[in-house]
Amino acid sequence: MNSAVPMRELATAVDAPVLDGDAVAPYLLDATEARGLRGRADAVVLARTANDVARVLAWCYEHDVPLTARGGGSGYAGGAVPDGGVVVALAGLRSVRSIEPLLWRAEIESGVTTHEVQRLARENGLYYPPDPGAAEQSQLGGNVATNAGGPHAFKYGVTGAWVTGLEVAIAPGELVTFGRGLRKDVAGYDIRSLLIGSEGTLGIVTAVRLKLIPPPEARRPVVAFYGDAGEGAAAVLHAMASGTLPAAIEFFDGAAFAISGRAFPLAREHADRPAFVLIAEADGSEEEAATGQMLLREALSAGAEEVLTPARPEEVAALWRWRDGMGIAADSYLGGKVSEDVCVPVDRLAEVVAATHEAAAEGQLEACSWGHAGDGNVHSSFLFDGGDAAAGLRATAAAERVFDAALALGGSVTGEHGVGLVKSPQLRKQLSPAAADIHRAVKRLFDPKDLLNRGKKVA
Ligand SMILES: Cc1cc2nc3c(=O)[nH]c(=O)nc-3n(C[C@H](O)[C@H](O)[C@H](O)COP(=O)(O)OP(=O)(O)OC[C@H]3O[C@@H](n4cnc5c(N)ncnc54)[C@H](O)[C@@H]3O)c2cc1C
Questions:
Q1: Using a 6 Å cutoff on CB, does residue 297 contact ligand 1?
Q2: pLDDT, position 2
Q3: pLDDT-derived band of residue 383, with 50, 70 and 90 as boundaries?
Q4: Whole-number Å distance between alpha carbons of 276 and 343
Q5: Measured between alpha carbons, how far is 59 from 357 in angstroms, rounded to an integer?
Q6: Longest pairwise C-alpha distance within the chain
Q7: Percent of the chain's residues with pLDDT above 70
Q8: 77 C-alpha vs ligand 1 centroid, how far in Å?
Q9: CA of 71 to the centre of ligand 1 (A)
Q10: Under 8 Å CB-to-CB from 29, ≥6 apart: which residues?
Q11: pLDDT, tens digit, 9 for 90 and up, residues 284-337
Protein backbone atom coordinates (compact mmCIF):
# COMPACT_ATOMS: atom_id res chain seq x y z
CA MET A 1 0.00 0.00 0.00
CA ASN A 2 1.24 3.50 -0.79
CA SER A 3 0.88 5.62 2.30
CA ALA A 4 1.60 8.94 0.58
CA VAL A 5 -0.66 9.65 -2.34
CA PRO A 6 1.03 11.18 -5.41
CA MET A 7 -1.17 14.25 -5.41
CA ARG A 8 -0.38 15.71 -8.78
CA GLU A 9 -1.07 12.43 -10.53
CA LEU A 10 -4.36 12.03 -8.66
CA ALA A 11 -5.54 15.56 -9.49
CA THR A 12 -4.73 15.05 -13.17
CA ALA A 13 -6.40 11.65 -13.32
CA VAL A 14 -9.70 12.60 -11.66
CA ASP A 15 -10.27 16.08 -13.08
CA ALA A 16 -12.04 17.18 -9.86
CA PRO A 17 -10.91 19.37 -6.95
CA VAL A 18 -8.46 17.56 -4.66
CA LEU A 19 -7.67 18.69 -1.11
CA ASP A 20 -4.59 17.84 0.90
CA GLY A 21 -2.72 19.03 4.00
CA ASP A 22 -4.83 20.78 6.64
CA ALA A 23 -7.75 21.02 4.23
CA VAL A 24 -8.54 17.31 4.75
CA ALA A 25 -9.29 17.80 8.49
CA PRO A 26 -13.10 18.14 8.22
CA TYR A 27 -13.21 14.82 6.35
CA LEU A 28 -11.55 12.76 9.08
CA LEU A 29 -14.53 12.66 11.47
CA ASP A 30 -18.14 11.60 11.69
CA ALA A 31 -20.69 11.64 14.55
CA THR A 32 -18.37 9.38 16.57
CA GLU A 33 -16.33 12.52 17.30
CA ALA A 34 -17.96 12.60 20.77
CA ARG A 35 -16.15 9.35 21.53
CA GLY A 36 -12.84 10.68 20.24
CA LEU A 37 -12.59 8.95 16.84
CA ARG A 38 -10.48 10.73 14.21
CA GLY A 39 -8.99 9.18 11.07
CA ARG A 40 -6.25 10.15 8.65
CA ALA A 41 -6.18 10.70 4.89
CA ASP A 42 -3.66 11.95 2.35
CA ALA A 43 -6.18 13.50 0.00
CA VAL A 44 -9.87 14.26 -0.41
CA VAL A 45 -11.47 14.31 -3.84
CA LEU A 46 -14.55 16.52 -4.12
CA ALA A 47 -16.42 14.50 -6.73
CA ARG A 48 -18.98 16.37 -8.84
CA THR A 49 -20.21 13.60 -11.11
CA ALA A 50 -20.64 9.84 -11.09
CA ASN A 51 -17.78 9.62 -13.59
CA ASP A 52 -15.51 11.49 -11.15
CA VAL A 53 -16.25 8.77 -8.58
CA ALA A 54 -15.49 5.98 -11.05
CA ARG A 55 -12.24 7.72 -12.02
CA VAL A 56 -11.10 8.07 -8.39
CA LEU A 57 -11.87 4.42 -7.79
CA ALA A 58 -9.98 3.39 -10.94
CA TRP A 59 -6.98 5.49 -9.91
CA CYS A 60 -6.96 4.05 -6.39
CA TYR A 61 -7.22 0.54 -7.77
CA GLU A 62 -4.36 1.15 -10.17
CA HIS A 63 -2.14 2.59 -7.41
CA ASP A 64 -3.20 0.31 -4.51
CA VAL A 65 -4.49 3.25 -2.47
CA PRO A 66 -7.31 2.79 0.09
CA LEU A 67 -10.51 4.71 -0.65
CA THR A 68 -13.24 5.79 1.77
CA ALA A 69 -16.63 7.09 0.62
CA ARG A 70 -17.97 10.05 2.57
CA GLY A 71 -21.58 11.20 2.59
CA GLY A 72 -22.82 13.70 5.16
CA GLY A 73 -20.50 12.40 7.90
CA SER A 74 -23.41 11.89 10.32
CA GLY A 75 -22.69 8.19 10.85
CA TYR A 76 -22.48 6.80 14.37
CA ALA A 77 -20.22 3.84 13.55
CA GLY A 78 -17.07 5.53 12.28
CA GLY A 79 -17.83 4.21 8.78
CA ALA A 80 -16.70 7.39 7.05
CA VAL A 81 -13.63 7.81 9.28
CA PRO A 82 -10.73 7.06 6.89
CA ASP A 83 -7.66 5.02 7.71
CA GLY A 84 -5.24 6.63 5.24
CA GLY A 85 -5.38 6.97 1.46
CA VAL A 86 -8.08 8.94 -0.34
CA VAL A 87 -11.54 10.10 0.74
CA VAL A 88 -14.10 10.65 -1.99
CA ALA A 89 -16.67 13.20 -0.82
CA LEU A 90 -20.05 12.75 -2.51
CA ALA A 91 -21.70 16.06 -1.55
CA GLY A 92 -21.16 17.41 -5.08
CA LEU A 93 -23.39 14.73 -6.66
CA ARG A 94 -26.51 16.85 -6.36
CA SER A 95 -28.54 16.25 -9.46
CA VAL A 96 -32.17 15.13 -9.42
CA ARG A 97 -31.98 13.11 -12.60
CA SER A 98 -35.72 12.60 -12.78
CA ILE A 99 -38.87 12.93 -10.75
CA GLU A 100 -42.06 11.45 -12.17
CA PRO A 101 -44.97 12.26 -9.85
CA LEU A 102 -47.47 10.27 -11.91
CA LEU A 103 -45.30 7.17 -11.71
CA TRP A 104 -44.43 7.77 -8.03
CA ARG A 105 -40.70 7.50 -8.65
CA ALA A 106 -37.48 9.50 -8.83
CA GLU A 107 -33.80 9.07 -9.63
CA ILE A 108 -31.57 11.14 -7.40
CA GLU A 109 -27.81 11.43 -7.03
CA SER A 110 -26.22 10.26 -3.83
CA GLY A 111 -25.06 13.65 -2.45
CA VAL A 112 -28.58 15.09 -2.11
CA THR A 113 -29.47 15.32 1.59
CA THR A 114 -32.21 13.21 3.13
CA HIS A 115 -34.14 16.36 3.99
CA GLU A 116 -33.98 17.53 0.37
CA VAL A 117 -35.26 14.15 -0.85
CA GLN A 118 -38.17 14.37 1.61
CA ARG A 119 -38.91 17.94 0.46
CA LEU A 120 -38.67 17.07 -3.22
CA ALA A 121 -41.21 14.28 -2.73
CA ARG A 122 -43.51 16.63 -0.78
CA GLU A 123 -43.31 19.37 -3.40
CA ASN A 124 -44.42 16.82 -5.97
CA GLY A 125 -47.40 15.69 -3.90
CA LEU A 126 -45.64 12.51 -2.75
CA TYR A 127 -44.04 11.04 0.36
CA TYR A 128 -40.58 9.56 0.96
CA PRO A 129 -41.07 7.83 4.34
CA PRO A 130 -37.50 7.15 5.63
CA ASP A 131 -36.79 9.70 8.36
CA PRO A 132 -33.38 9.10 9.97
CA GLY A 133 -32.65 11.72 12.61
CA ALA A 134 -29.83 13.70 10.98
CA ALA A 135 -31.83 14.41 7.79
CA GLU A 136 -30.36 17.88 7.20
CA GLN A 137 -26.84 16.44 7.22
CA SER A 138 -27.08 12.87 6.00
CA GLN A 139 -27.15 12.14 2.28
CA LEU A 140 -29.20 9.71 0.26
CA GLY A 141 -26.05 7.72 -0.61
CA GLY A 142 -25.10 7.49 3.07
CA ASN A 143 -28.64 6.41 3.94
CA VAL A 144 -28.45 3.65 1.33
CA ALA A 145 -24.95 2.64 2.46
CA THR A 146 -26.17 2.24 6.06
CA ASN A 147 -29.75 1.21 5.18
CA ALA A 148 -30.84 3.93 7.60
CA GLY A 149 -34.05 3.69 9.57
CA GLY A 150 -35.99 6.22 11.61
CA PRO A 151 -39.16 6.46 13.70
CA HIS A 152 -41.56 5.76 10.84
CA ALA A 153 -39.65 2.66 9.72
CA PHE A 154 -42.03 0.77 12.01
CA LYS A 155 -44.82 1.02 9.44
CA TYR A 156 -42.98 2.02 6.27
CA GLY A 157 -39.68 0.16 6.48
CA VAL A 158 -36.06 1.36 6.30
CA THR A 159 -34.32 3.10 3.37
CA GLY A 160 -33.83 -0.10 1.40
CA ALA A 161 -37.59 -0.64 1.20
CA TRP A 162 -37.77 2.44 -1.06
CA VAL A 163 -34.83 1.70 -3.36
CA THR A 164 -35.61 0.04 -6.68
CA GLY A 165 -32.24 0.61 -8.35
CA LEU A 166 -28.69 1.78 -7.75
CA GLU A 167 -25.91 3.19 -9.87
CA VAL A 168 -22.64 2.19 -8.24
CA ALA A 169 -18.93 2.70 -8.94
CA ILE A 170 -17.30 -0.69 -8.47
CA ALA A 171 -13.75 -2.00 -8.75
CA PRO A 172 -11.65 -1.70 -10.80
CA GLY A 173 -13.38 1.53 -11.72
CA GLU A 174 -16.63 1.36 -13.67
CA LEU A 175 -20.22 2.48 -13.21
CA VAL A 176 -22.76 -0.34 -13.04
CA THR A 177 -26.50 -0.24 -12.41
CA PHE A 178 -28.34 -2.83 -10.32
CA GLY A 179 -32.12 -2.66 -10.53
CA ARG A 180 -34.26 -0.20 -12.44
CA GLY A 181 -37.17 2.12 -11.84
CA LEU A 182 -39.54 -0.83 -11.56
CA ARG A 183 -41.80 -1.81 -8.72
CA LYS A 184 -41.07 -5.51 -9.39
CA ASP A 185 -38.00 -7.12 -10.93
CA VAL A 186 -36.60 -10.57 -10.17
CA ALA A 187 -34.19 -10.84 -13.10
CA GLY A 188 -30.73 -11.81 -11.84
CA TYR A 189 -29.51 -11.98 -8.26
CA ASP A 190 -30.65 -9.24 -5.89
CA ILE A 191 -27.28 -7.44 -5.88
CA ARG A 192 -29.05 -4.15 -5.15
CA SER A 193 -30.08 -5.49 -1.75
CA LEU A 194 -26.54 -6.76 -1.14
CA LEU A 195 -25.18 -3.27 -1.77
CA ILE A 196 -27.79 -1.59 0.45
CA GLY A 197 -26.27 -1.43 3.92
CA SER A 198 -22.80 -2.42 2.69
CA GLU A 199 -21.27 0.77 4.16
CA GLY A 200 -19.04 1.63 1.22
CA THR A 201 -17.12 -1.64 1.48
CA LEU A 202 -18.34 -3.11 -1.84
CA GLY A 203 -18.87 -0.08 -4.08
CA ILE A 204 -19.71 3.62 -4.05
CA VAL A 205 -23.31 4.61 -4.70
CA THR A 206 -23.60 7.47 -7.19
CA ALA A 207 -27.35 7.55 -7.86
CA VAL A 208 -30.47 5.97 -6.40
CA ARG A 209 -33.82 5.11 -7.96
CA LEU A 210 -36.57 5.55 -5.39
CA LYS A 211 -40.21 4.63 -5.28
CA LEU A 212 -42.49 7.12 -3.56
CA ILE A 213 -46.10 7.07 -2.32
CA PRO A 214 -48.88 9.57 -1.73
CA PRO A 215 -48.56 11.12 1.75
CA PRO A 216 -50.89 10.30 4.62
CA GLU A 217 -53.44 13.07 5.03
CA ALA A 218 -53.07 13.29 8.81
CA ARG A 219 -50.79 12.20 11.66
CA ARG A 220 -52.11 11.78 15.17
CA PRO A 221 -49.65 10.79 17.88
CA VAL A 222 -50.30 9.64 21.42
CA VAL A 223 -47.74 10.37 24.14
CA ALA A 224 -47.97 8.21 27.28
CA PHE A 225 -45.98 8.71 30.50
CA TYR A 226 -45.35 5.83 32.91
CA GLY A 227 -44.10 5.85 36.47
CA ASP A 228 -42.89 2.28 36.07
CA ALA A 229 -40.46 1.29 33.30
CA GLY A 230 -41.84 -2.26 33.13
CA GLU A 231 -45.35 -0.98 32.45
CA GLY A 232 -44.01 1.39 29.81
CA ALA A 233 -42.15 -1.40 28.01
CA ALA A 234 -45.24 -3.63 28.18
CA ALA A 235 -47.27 -0.84 26.59
CA VAL A 236 -45.24 -1.24 23.39
CA LEU A 237 -46.93 -4.61 22.94
CA HIS A 238 -50.29 -3.06 23.82
CA ALA A 239 -49.78 -0.52 21.00
CA MET A 240 -49.07 -3.39 18.60
CA ALA A 241 -52.27 -5.13 19.72
CA SER A 242 -54.35 -1.94 19.57
CA GLY A 243 -56.17 -2.79 16.35
CA THR A 244 -54.41 -0.14 14.26
CA LEU A 245 -51.01 -0.31 12.56
CA PRO A 246 -48.99 2.48 14.22
CA ALA A 247 -46.75 4.49 11.91
CA ALA A 248 -44.17 4.82 14.70
CA ILE A 249 -43.62 3.60 18.27
CA GLU A 250 -40.80 5.47 20.00
CA PHE A 251 -39.59 5.37 23.61
CA PHE A 252 -37.46 7.26 26.14
CA ASP A 253 -36.36 5.88 29.48
CA GLY A 254 -36.54 8.14 32.53
CA ALA A 255 -32.91 9.25 32.20
CA ALA A 256 -33.34 10.19 28.53
CA PHE A 257 -36.48 12.17 29.34
CA ALA A 258 -34.68 13.90 32.21
CA ILE A 259 -32.08 15.13 29.69
CA SER A 260 -34.42 16.34 26.97
CA GLY A 261 -37.74 16.77 28.83
CA ARG A 262 -37.24 20.46 29.57
CA ALA A 263 -37.73 21.16 25.86
CA PHE A 264 -40.79 18.88 25.60
CA PRO A 265 -43.24 20.98 23.58
CA LEU A 266 -46.68 19.85 24.86
CA ALA A 267 -48.40 20.87 28.07
CA ARG A 268 -48.47 18.21 30.83
CA GLU A 269 -50.29 18.22 34.11
CA HIS A 270 -48.54 15.35 35.91
CA ALA A 271 -45.68 13.07 34.99
CA ASP A 272 -42.83 15.37 35.95
CA ARG A 273 -40.28 12.58 36.30
CA PRO A 274 -41.59 9.67 34.25
CA ALA A 275 -39.70 6.37 34.27
CA PHE A 276 -40.68 5.66 30.67
CA VAL A 277 -42.31 7.65 27.86
CA LEU A 278 -43.87 6.27 24.68
CA ILE A 279 -44.90 8.04 21.50
CA ALA A 280 -47.11 6.03 19.16
CA GLU A 281 -48.53 7.62 16.04
CA ALA A 282 -51.53 6.79 13.87
CA ASP A 283 -51.67 8.15 10.32
CA GLY A 284 -53.79 7.90 7.17
CA SER A 285 -56.89 9.85 6.14
CA GLU A 286 -58.22 12.30 8.76
CA GLU A 287 -60.74 9.69 9.82
CA GLU A 288 -58.26 6.80 9.93
CA ALA A 289 -55.75 8.85 11.92
CA ALA A 290 -58.39 9.98 14.43
CA THR A 291 -59.68 6.41 14.89
CA GLY A 292 -56.13 5.10 15.17
CA GLN A 293 -55.28 7.72 17.76
CA MET A 294 -58.31 6.71 19.83
CA LEU A 295 -57.32 3.03 19.67
CA LEU A 296 -53.73 3.84 20.64
CA ARG A 297 -54.90 6.04 23.48
CA GLU A 298 -56.98 3.18 24.87
CA ALA A 299 -54.12 0.73 24.46
CA LEU A 300 -51.51 2.95 26.10
CA SER A 301 -53.65 4.15 29.02
CA ALA A 302 -53.22 1.01 31.16
CA GLY A 303 -50.74 1.93 33.89
CA ALA A 304 -50.00 5.38 32.43
CA GLU A 305 -49.71 8.47 34.65
CA GLU A 306 -50.78 10.73 31.83
CA VAL A 307 -51.67 10.38 28.15
CA LEU A 308 -51.58 13.24 25.61
CA THR A 309 -53.30 13.24 22.23
CA PRO A 310 -52.10 16.23 20.20
CA ALA A 311 -54.13 16.87 17.07
CA ARG A 312 -53.07 20.23 15.64
CA PRO A 313 -50.43 19.81 12.89
CA GLU A 314 -48.14 22.39 14.54
CA GLU A 315 -48.21 20.44 17.83
CA VAL A 316 -47.45 17.21 15.99
CA ALA A 317 -44.58 18.85 14.09
CA ALA A 318 -43.17 20.28 17.35
CA LEU A 319 -43.34 16.86 18.99
CA TRP A 320 -41.31 15.23 16.20
CA ARG A 321 -38.80 18.10 16.15
CA TRP A 322 -38.31 17.50 19.85
CA ARG A 323 -37.92 13.77 19.24
CA ASP A 324 -35.29 14.44 16.54
CA GLY A 325 -33.29 16.55 19.02
CA MET A 326 -32.81 13.69 21.51
CA GLY A 327 -29.44 12.56 20.11
CA ILE A 328 -28.05 16.09 20.12
CA ALA A 329 -29.36 16.69 23.67
CA ALA A 330 -27.52 13.57 24.83
CA ASP A 331 -24.37 14.67 22.94
CA SER A 332 -24.27 18.02 24.69
CA TYR A 333 -25.30 16.77 28.17
CA LEU A 334 -21.74 16.04 29.38
CA GLY A 335 -19.78 16.45 26.16
CA GLY A 336 -18.81 12.76 25.81
CA LYS A 337 -21.12 10.01 24.54
CA VAL A 338 -20.81 6.42 23.41
CA SER A 339 -24.18 5.56 21.91
CA GLU A 340 -24.98 2.22 20.31
CA ASP A 341 -28.03 0.95 18.49
CA VAL A 342 -28.60 -2.66 19.44
CA CYS A 343 -31.77 -4.34 18.25
CA VAL A 344 -33.69 -6.97 20.21
CA PRO A 345 -37.01 -8.77 19.89
CA VAL A 346 -39.63 -6.22 20.96
CA ASP A 347 -40.64 -8.19 24.06
CA ARG A 348 -37.02 -7.98 25.36
CA LEU A 349 -36.83 -4.18 25.25
CA ALA A 350 -37.02 -3.70 29.04
CA GLU A 351 -34.15 -6.16 29.53
CA VAL A 352 -31.76 -4.32 27.24
CA VAL A 353 -32.68 -0.99 28.87
CA ALA A 354 -31.94 -2.55 32.28
CA ALA A 355 -28.67 -4.03 30.96
CA THR A 356 -27.62 -0.54 29.83
CA HIS A 357 -28.07 0.86 33.33
CA GLU A 358 -26.31 -2.12 34.93
CA ALA A 359 -23.34 -1.67 32.60
CA ALA A 360 -23.29 2.05 33.42
CA ALA A 361 -23.30 1.38 37.16
CA GLU A 362 -20.36 -1.02 36.78
CA GLY A 363 -18.46 1.59 34.79
CA GLN A 364 -19.43 4.47 37.13
CA LEU A 365 -21.07 6.28 34.23
CA GLU A 366 -24.34 8.00 33.50
CA ALA A 367 -26.55 6.32 30.93
CA CYS A 368 -29.83 6.71 29.13
CA SER A 369 -31.75 4.83 26.44
CA TRP A 370 -34.25 5.83 23.84
CA GLY A 371 -35.16 4.70 20.35
CA HIS A 372 -37.46 2.91 18.02
CA ALA A 373 -39.38 0.77 20.51
CA GLY A 374 -41.65 -0.87 17.94
CA ASP A 375 -38.58 -2.16 16.09
CA GLY A 376 -36.81 -3.19 19.32
CA ASN A 377 -34.03 -0.77 18.35
CA VAL A 378 -32.43 0.84 21.40
CA HIS A 379 -29.94 3.71 21.55
CA SER A 380 -28.05 2.59 24.65
CA SER A 381 -25.97 5.62 25.52
CA PHE A 382 -23.17 6.16 28.03
CA LEU A 383 -22.50 9.78 28.92
CA PHE A 384 -19.29 11.19 30.35
CA ASP A 385 -17.21 14.31 30.61
CA GLY A 386 -15.83 14.80 27.10
CA GLY A 387 -12.37 15.59 28.49
CA ASP A 388 -12.15 12.41 30.56
CA ALA A 389 -10.39 9.82 28.37
CA ALA A 390 -10.56 7.12 31.07
CA ALA A 391 -14.34 7.54 31.28
CA GLY A 392 -14.49 7.22 27.49
CA LEU A 393 -12.73 3.85 27.74
CA ARG A 394 -15.13 2.75 30.48
CA ALA A 395 -18.03 3.79 28.25
CA THR A 396 -16.70 1.69 25.38
CA ALA A 397 -16.37 -1.27 27.76
CA ALA A 398 -19.93 -0.69 29.02
CA ALA A 399 -21.22 -0.66 25.43
CA GLU A 400 -19.52 -4.01 24.88
CA ARG A 401 -21.52 -5.45 27.77
CA VAL A 402 -24.70 -4.19 26.11
CA PHE A 403 -23.71 -5.83 22.81
CA ASP A 404 -23.29 -9.13 24.66
CA ALA A 405 -26.62 -8.66 26.43
CA ALA A 406 -28.38 -7.94 23.12
CA LEU A 407 -26.89 -11.05 21.48
CA ALA A 408 -27.92 -13.17 24.47
CA LEU A 409 -31.47 -11.84 24.06
CA GLY A 410 -31.55 -13.00 20.42
CA GLY A 411 -30.74 -9.51 19.11
CA SER A 412 -28.25 -7.78 16.83
CA VAL A 413 -25.28 -5.52 17.61
CA THR A 414 -26.68 -2.90 15.25
CA GLY A 415 -30.19 -2.12 14.10
CA GLU A 416 -29.48 0.92 11.96
CA HIS A 417 -26.15 2.71 12.41
CA GLY A 418 -24.11 -0.05 10.82
CA VAL A 419 -20.92 -1.82 11.81
CA GLY A 420 -18.33 0.65 10.55
CA LEU A 421 -15.11 0.81 12.49
CA VAL A 422 -16.52 0.63 15.99
CA LYS A 423 -18.56 -2.58 15.73
CA SER A 424 -16.37 -4.65 13.48
CA PRO A 425 -15.19 -6.81 16.45
CA GLN A 426 -18.82 -7.19 17.56
CA LEU A 427 -19.91 -8.48 14.16
CA ARG A 428 -17.54 -11.41 14.60
CA LYS A 429 -19.49 -12.41 17.69
CA GLN A 430 -22.79 -12.29 15.82
CA LEU A 431 -21.93 -14.16 12.62
CA SER A 432 -21.41 -17.90 12.56
CA PRO A 433 -18.06 -19.02 11.01
CA ALA A 434 -19.84 -20.07 7.80
CA ALA A 435 -21.73 -16.78 7.56
CA ALA A 436 -18.48 -14.85 8.19
CA ASP A 437 -16.77 -16.82 5.38
CA ILE A 438 -19.54 -15.85 2.97
CA HIS A 439 -19.21 -12.21 4.00
CA ARG A 440 -15.46 -12.31 3.32
CA ALA A 441 -16.01 -14.04 -0.04
CA VAL A 442 -18.49 -11.34 -1.10
CA LYS A 443 -16.01 -8.66 -0.06
CA ARG A 444 -13.22 -10.34 -2.09
CA LEU A 445 -15.47 -10.58 -5.14
CA PHE A 446 -16.32 -6.87 -5.14
CA ASP A 447 -13.04 -5.58 -3.76
CA PRO A 448 -10.23 -8.07 -4.43
CA LYS A 449 -7.53 -5.61 -3.32
CA ASP A 450 -9.35 -4.74 -0.08
CA LEU A 451 -9.17 -1.00 -0.73
CA LEU A 452 -12.79 0.07 -0.25
CA ASN A 453 -13.37 1.25 3.31
CA ARG A 454 -10.68 -1.12 4.49
CA GLY A 455 -10.98 -2.30 8.09
CA LYS A 456 -14.73 -1.68 8.28
CA LYS A 457 -17.67 -4.05 8.54
CA VAL A 458 -16.12 -7.44 7.65
CA ALA A 459 -12.60 -6.73 8.88
C1 LIG B 1 -28.42 13.33 15.45
C2 LIG B 1 -28.34 12.04 14.68
C3 LIG B 1 -29.48 11.26 14.55
C4 LIG B 1 -29.43 10.08 13.82
N5 LIG B 1 -30.58 9.34 13.69
C6 LIG B 1 -30.56 8.22 12.94
C7 LIG B 1 -31.74 7.44 12.75
O8 LIG B 1 -32.82 7.78 13.25
N9 LIG B 1 -31.65 6.32 12.01
C10 LIG B 1 -30.47 5.93 11.44
O11 LIG B 1 -30.45 4.89 10.75
N12 LIG B 1 -29.34 6.63 11.60
C13 LIG B 1 -29.35 7.76 12.33
N14 LIG B 1 -28.21 8.49 12.48
C15 LIG B 1 -26.94 8.01 11.87
C16 LIG B 1 -26.67 8.57 10.46
O17 LIG B 1 -27.35 9.80 10.23
C18 LIG B 1 -27.05 7.56 9.39
O19 LIG B 1 -26.23 6.41 9.53
C20 LIG B 1 -26.92 8.09 7.96
O21 LIG B 1 -27.53 7.18 7.07
C22 LIG B 1 -25.49 8.35 7.53
O23 LIG B 1 -25.52 9.06 6.32
P24 LIG B 1 -24.32 10.03 5.92
O25 LIG B 1 -24.59 10.56 4.55
O26 LIG B 1 -24.06 11.02 6.96
O27 LIG B 1 -23.14 8.96 5.82
P28 LIG B 1 -21.64 9.01 6.37
O29 LIG B 1 -21.61 9.17 7.84
O30 LIG B 1 -20.84 9.96 5.56
O31 LIG B 1 -21.17 7.52 5.99
C32 LIG B 1 -21.76 6.41 6.60
C33 LIG B 1 -21.25 5.14 5.90
O34 LIG B 1 -21.74 5.09 4.57
C35 LIG B 1 -20.66 5.10 3.62
N36 LIG B 1 -21.10 5.95 2.51
C37 LIG B 1 -21.53 7.24 2.58
N38 LIG B 1 -21.94 7.64 1.36
C39 LIG B 1 -21.77 6.59 0.53
C40 LIG B 1 -22.01 6.36 -0.86
N41 LIG B 1 -22.53 7.30 -1.65
N42 LIG B 1 -21.71 5.14 -1.37
C43 LIG B 1 -21.20 4.16 -0.59
N44 LIG B 1 -20.94 4.32 0.72
C45 LIG B 1 -21.23 5.51 1.26
C46 LIG B 1 -19.45 5.62 4.39
O47 LIG B 1 -18.25 5.13 3.85
C48 LIG B 1 -19.73 5.08 5.76
O49 LIG B 1 -19.34 3.74 5.86
C50 LIG B 1 -28.22 9.67 13.21
C51 LIG B 1 -27.08 10.46 13.35
C52 LIG B 1 -27.13 11.63 14.07
C53 LIG B 1 -25.87 12.47 14.17
A1: no
A2: 45
A3: very high
A4: 18
A5: 48
A6: 68
A7: 98
A8: 9
A9: 7
A10: 37, 38, 39, 73, 81
A11: 999 999 999 999 999 999 999 999 999 999 999 999 999 999 999 999 999 999
Residue 444 CB coordination number (10 Å) = 12
Buried (b) or exposed (e) across 181-197, using 16+ Cβ within 10 A?
Answer: beeeeeeeeebbeebbb
Tell me, using a 6 A CB cutoff, whether residue 197 lines ligand 1.
no
- List CB contacts of 311: < 8 A, sequence separation 6 or more: 220, 290, 293
CA torsion 19→22→28→32, rounded to 10°? Answer: -150
Instruction: For residue 135, report the distance from its CA to the centre of ligand 1, in Å.
Output: 9
CA–CA distance, 272 with 346 (Å, rounded to integer): 26
H/E element, 308: strand 304-308
214 DSSP 8-state letter? P
pLDDT digits 0-9 by tens, 212-237:
999 999 999 999 999 999 999 999 99
Q: Under a CB-based contact definition with an 8 Å cutoff, are residues 212 and 202 in contact?
A: no
Average pLDDT, the chain: 95
Q: Are the beta carbons of 398 and 360 closer than 8 angstroms?
A: yes
> pTM score, two decimals?
0.96
Residue type, 90: L
